[in-house]
């Protein structure tokens, strides 16, 4: 049995950290002002991001947060290949989910990290 990777989240606008491990951008749109070199990505996985419709509906409105979480988890359940792609990244160490939103508590990476951690707990 292998150890599940540590899942971290971080803004793409923050400099890469030495302990980031595999860096995965989970936004559907490329973040403004970030070069591909500065991003230092292992993977840009657009397919795991919330749908355009859900992203627009949410609009980073904290009042819609709980409903956004519910809807996004439903989308994740419908996209097992994208979820598997993150968990099967080659290498060891942490996986850092990167996002561009200003709000550090109400964004898709927070939901995705919780979802991935829940999957890991059901398989151990």
Protein traits:
124 residues; alpha/beta; four-stranded parallel sheet; 5 helices; 4 strands; DUF488 domain-containing protein; YeaO-like
Mind explaining what this structure looks like?
With 124 residues, the chain is α/β, with parallel strands linked by helices. It has one domain (7-122). The protein contains five helices and four strands. It has helices spanning 36-39, 52-58, 65-77, 80-87, 108-122, and strands at residues 7-11, 22-25, 43-44, 95-99. It has a four-stranded parallel beta sheet with strand order 1-4-2-3, with helices on one face. Strand 2 (22-25), helix 1 (36-39) and strand 3 form a beta-alpha-beta unit. The radius of gyration is 14 Å and the shape is globular. The termini are close together.
Average pLDDT for all residues:
92
> How many strand units?
4
Radius of gyration: 14 Å
Distance between the termini: 8 Å
Largest sheet strand order: 1-4-2-3
Anisotropy-based shape: globular
Low-confidence parts, pLDDT < 50 over ≥5 residues? none
Short description:
The chain is 38% helix and 13% strand. It is α/β, with parallel strands linked by helices and 124 residues long.
């Amino acid at each position: 049995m292998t150890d599940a990777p540590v899942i971290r989240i971080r803004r793409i606008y923050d400099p890469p950290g030495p302990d980031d491990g595999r860096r995965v951008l989970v936004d559907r749109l490329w973040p403004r002002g970030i070069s591909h070199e500065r991003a230092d990505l292992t993977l840009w996985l657009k397919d795991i991001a919330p749908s355009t419709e859900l992203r627009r509906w949410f609009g980073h409105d904290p009042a819609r947060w709980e409903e956004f979480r519910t809807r996004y988890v439903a989308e994740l359940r419908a996209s097992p290949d994208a979820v598997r792609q993150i968990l099967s990244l080659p290498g060891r160490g942490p996986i850092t989910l990167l996002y561009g939103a200003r709000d550090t508590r109400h964004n898709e990476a927070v939901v995705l990290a919780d979802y991935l951690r829940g999957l890991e707990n059901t398989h151990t």
